[in-house]
Amino acid sequence: MRVLFVNWVDWRDALGRGGGVAVYERNLARALEGSGIEVGWLSSGLGHDLGRGAPPRWQAVPGQPGHYRIVNSAVLAPGQLAWDSPAQLADAGTEAAFADFLAATGPWDAVQFDNIEGLPVSVLAVARAAGARVVPVLHNYYPVCPQVNLWHQERRNCQDFDQGRACVTCLPGGQTGPGARRAALAVIWQAEALGGRRLVPVAVAGLKAARAGLGLLRRLRRRRAAPAAGPAAGPDPAAAARFAARRAAMVAAINAQAHRVLCVSDRVRDLAAAHGLDPALLQTARIGTPEAVRFDRAAPRPALCDDKGHVRLAYLGYMRRDKGFFFLLDALEGLPPAIAARLHLTVAARRGPPEVMARLEALRPRLAGLDHVDGYTHAQLDGLLQDVTLGVVPVLWEDNLPQVALEMHLRGIPLLTSDLGGARELGNCPDLVFRAGDAGAFAGRLAAVLGGDIDLTAYWAGARAPETMDGHLDVLRKVWSGSAG
């Protein structure tokens, strides 16, 4: 069997782009070694020639057998850079390059699209016409959300795109033109080719300075040309119609061309169906982790409180609004003193701006203890989490399956989660779930923990074991071969 994996960035990317999907593909690559399955890896959307007019083409990645890329794709990547681009739906040149690639390197039994970013969705039909089983995987929400994460204006969970009107005003500050975005990607790609990582920061710094200067010029021009203030205008109806058409066309293309659509959690599957994807195509396929064996070996935390009666709470990840960090600060600041005084908080995340760090530090007198770790490596997690009795995953968006939740779950740490995304499916315990963004509900769950109202035996009896790599590959083989339906 021959299987092609498609993503906007190669999992061997020298700059480490791609987040959790790149980690997933890296783990798959290792698990597939010696499996008898021949694999290929195609990326698209990042590589661009300097200058204008060069047609899309494919090439093998130098020094990396089995790795390929589409250069000069009409669809820029990651997804936000293709904002409001008609090429996201169809582009003849990019489709031709993709078809040429399949003809030259195929036949492929299956093409697994770990992301469609960086390519027009019309390539699904190209892959199907070439005889491959077409398998999109929903690691994010790009097919129904050009922002990819259903997170409106970097402020709130997007539950209604208002027929495209919400999309028009979604990206704060607007965007540079597509030509400038493509030129920026070309400069970064050429800098990487010439000097590897060494030249890329210089190129990025120069591009940021140029973008800031261009932004200032645009603001000055708009100010000079602005008419006298009047009633605020609503979103451009034509732009709203384009975003509505984009969602409808993406969903229609997947429904027409996919043989199976894999969802990394039940919540993702439910959302996909709610957004119009055919339920008959949808299948939950939780990603495998090489560390799944930890779950069976780890001793579950025997209690939610330590011997002093304190809950030792841990937050891992980023100091970002969508991850719920600022909600967590708000909620902790508003806790009744009797609850706050029994919490020991560990925050393992890169330092935020001074005002954020000041808010975190101001919590110290209210809590039983506070530790901040300025970022961490995977190798440090065992030490960081050694004394933690409860992990908190307070996400404010439909986070498909947060890696930080999995890391704590694997180590026998119960999880207190919001009701958004897939993290709550690990513990599978409604008693440790609170309404996202609801500080009162968060406080209520902590009060239940401190009051001894949570049955840990029942928690671990209902907890879901993480998927092993072998188990995940068994699922994929059935999907790739068609034996799963």
Provide a concise account of the structure shown.
With 485 residues, the protein is an alpha/beta fold. Helices cover 39% and strands 15% of the residues. The chain has two domains: 2-222 and 237-288 and 474-481, Glycogen Phosphorylase B (Rossmann fold, 3-Layer(aba) Sandwich), CATH 3.40.50; 293-462, 3-Layer(aba) Sandwich (Rossmann fold), CATH 3.40.50.2000.
Task: Please give a structural write-up.
The protein is an alpha/beta fold and 485 residues long. It folds into 2 domains: 281 residues, Glycogen Phosphorylase B (Rossmann fold); 170 residues, Rossmann fold (3-Layer(aba) Sandwich), CATH 3.40.50.2000. The protein contains 18 helices and 16 strands. The strands form 3 sheets. The protein has an 8-stranded mixed sheet, with helices on both faces. Strands 13-12-11-14-15-16 form a 6-stranded parallel sheet, sandwiched between helices. It starts with a strand and ends with a helix.
Global morphology? globular
The level of helicity is: 25-40%
Task: Give the uncertain stretches in residue-range form.
Answer: 202-207, 209-230
The CATH topology assignment of the largest domain is Rossmann fold
**Strand fraction:** 5-15%
What is the helix tally? 18
Relevant CATH superfamily of the largest domain = Glycogen Phosphorylase B
The rounded Rg comes to 24 Å
Mean of residue pLDDT?
A: 91
Major sheet characteristics: 8 strands, mixed
For the termini, the CA-CA separation is 17 Å
For the biggest β-sheet, the strand order reads 3-4-2-1-5-6-9-10
Label the CATH architecture of the largest domain: 3-Layer(aba) Sandwich
For the record, the count of structural domains works out to 2
Structural class: alpha/beta
